[in-house]
Amino acid sequence: MPTLLSRGPSPRSLLGIEHLQRPEIERLLERGTHYKSVPPFMKLDTLRGRSIVNLFFEPSTRTRTSFEIAAKRLGADTIDIQALGSSLSKGESLVDTLNTLAAMNPDIIVMRHSASGAPHFLSRYLSTPMINAGDGRHEHPTQALLDALTILEVKGTLEGLRVAIIGDISHSRVARSNIHLLGSFGADIVLCGPATTVSENMTRLAPGVSLTYDMREAVRDADVVMMLRVQLERQNVEVFPKNEYFRYFGLTLEHVQLAKQEAIVLHPGPINRGREITSEVADSQRSMILSQVENGVAIRMAVLEWVCSEQDGRKRCAS
Ligand code: CP
């Protein structure tokens, strides 16, 4: 049985939104706003000499690339590891892989894994700070932060906004992290999806969450319509007829017209046109999809800085 050795007090990691305090979230959003204003060609020294391991066990375009760009803009070195091509494919366990990587003393490990709770389990034993880049259906904290930044840029506040979160909710780590964040900032959240993927239990995740199975009711008077990807890879059995999904839960221009006049549309991507959203909506002025991608770099710069700043504090305390 492989073991992980405890190496003293846990370093600061970003594992989820649920246990983050509101002032910490506000600080990350402020720093994200700051980094958004830094021209992309400007390379900073903030993390010069640091090394960041990006360890992705599930496919990713946005998260992996933006973590890499964010680290490089801050002056860090990055090491990109994917499951295929690593010694995992030779039978090495996840624990042994993480122990091996930690032994090379990187400053941060960014990890995406299909198992909910994988980074939480590993971070209890590793002295290397970890950032959760998405764990199964559990949390995707940097996605919720970049979504909040995107909403704040347009709306100026999260408090009192009506946010409809629509789609394959129970399989969605994006939904969970957003419910925690938006709920703690006083948004009114309406969940909507097939009855097999969302239940009353989800409304207890945060204050101000309600549930409807009627898409038109969900989008009516919404300030923000947040669509989710159908997570086919997490559905062991067919939980709804795929061919009928769009008819009941696909976002069309007609739906958007039921929302507030200045409503915006978010989707974490990758989008499946014609399944979750029409091209008319995805490419419309209401769509913030590419702003979300752009904000992902700024938020991940803020998160990398936040994790490293605590390490700096520890080193100063130790010396
Ligand atoms: N939103 C998101 O996590 O996208 P990727 O899977 O491309 O990283």
Written overview of the protein:
The protein is of the alpha/beta class and 319 residues long. The protein folds into 2 domains: 22-139 and 295-308, Aspartate/ornithine carbamoyltransferase (Rossmann fold, 3-Layer(aba) Sandwich), CATH 3.40.50; 141-293, 3-Layer(aba) Sandwich (Rossmann fold), CATH 3.40.50.1370. It is 39% helix and 14% strand. It has 11 helices and 9 strands. It has helices at residues 22-36, 62-73, 94-103, 118-123, 141-155, 173-184, 215-219, 242-249, 253-258, 279-282, 289-318; strands spanning 51-56, 77-82, 108-113, 130-135, 162-166, 188-192, 209-212, 224-227, 264-266. The strands form 2 sheets. It has a 5-stranded parallel sheet. Strands 2-1-3-4 form a 4-stranded parallel sheet. Strand 5, helix 6 and strand 6 (188-192) form a beta-alpha-beta unit. The radius of gyration is 20 Å and the shape is globular. The two termini are 37 Å apart. The mean pLDDT is 92. Residues 60-63, 134, 143, 268-270 line the site of phosphoric acid mono(formamide)ester.
